[in-house]
Structures are given as structure tokens and as C-alpha cells.
Amino acid sequence: MTSNPAFRAAPARAYVIGFGTCLLAWILLTGTLAASELAAGALVALVATAAAGSRLTLLGGLRLSPAAPLHLVRYLGYFLVQLTLSNFDMARRILSPSLPLDPGMVEVHTGLRSELGRMLLANSITLTPGTLTVDVDDDRLLIHWIDRAGGTDMEAATRAIAAGFEQRIRGFLS
């Protein structure tokens, strides 16, 4: 009988991160540090963490360092800039149908090791207009790109689509 990797046991570190995140969310939502609220929050966080169980293995890629929140903010800023630029680019292409398009599939490489890191990279690419992640297979992502003008070889596509996101994601994920 083989074990399903999706149901492997989460490391204790993942449970601590999950519990801490749930408790922090509770405190931020209630806006108080009253003992009764903290006790209720701890209970809810404990139940939520226990219910999540093996799904917490995704949190194993998080880096717990003092600089991690700063890297997360850097990533969010970069993502918002790329999202805005991509929206303007797509609007320009829609309003100027004479612009040449070269849609197609390209493969990009990622050095991110954690499932959460690869998932965040794939979703970041998908959420920016003009690109859509079609498949993720280990260290390769298959992307539909509205205009392959940046190049169709893996290195050029990786530089144009994924490198900026990946560089910033590495600050808080492995």
C-alpha cells in the first residue's frame, strides 16, 4: 500500500505557524486583548489548526525570519505594479486591434522548491492579464502568453514572465 503524498503528516513547525496565524487573525478581527477573547481565539485557532491537519504541509516552505514580512511587502508591491502594467497593456491591445499578437504556449523554469512557493508563482502569473498558467510540473510551468514577443525559449520566457515574481517570493518562501 502506497501513501498519498497529499496526506503526509505536517511538521510541528507548520502547526505552530497555522495556530499563530489563526490566533493573530482572531486578535486583529476582535480588536481586543481581553483574556476571554484570547481564550476563545486560542480555542478556535486550535480547532482550525487541528482540522487543517495534513493540509498544513504547504506552510513548510515559509521562512520565519525578521526580514520575511519586508519581503512579503516587496512582493505585494511588485505584484501590484505588474498587475497595473499588464492591465494597461491589455487595454491598449483591445483598443488598438491593429497591434500584432503572437499568442502561444511557453515553458518557464522555477527554482522555488516549496509547493506554496510554486503555487504562489503560478497564481501570480495567472492573475496578471496576458498570461495564464496552464500546468505546473515540478520546476516547470506551462504558460499561455498573449504575446510571445519576449521570446519562446525557456530562458527568455522565464526572464520575461516569472523571474521578477520568483526573486521576490524567495524572500519569504523557499
TrEMBL record:
It is found in: Cell membrane. Its main location: membrane. Keywords: Cell membrane, Membrane, Transmembrane, Transmembrane helix. Pfam families: MNHE. GO terms for molecular function: monoatomic cation transmembrane transporter activity. It is a multi-pass membrane protein. One of its GO terms (cellular component) is plasma membrane. The keyword Cell membrane applies. The chain crosses the membrane at residues 12-32, 38-58. InterPro entries: Cation_antiport_E (IPR002758). Belongs to the CPA3 antiporters (TC 2.A.63) subunit E family. This is Cation transporter.
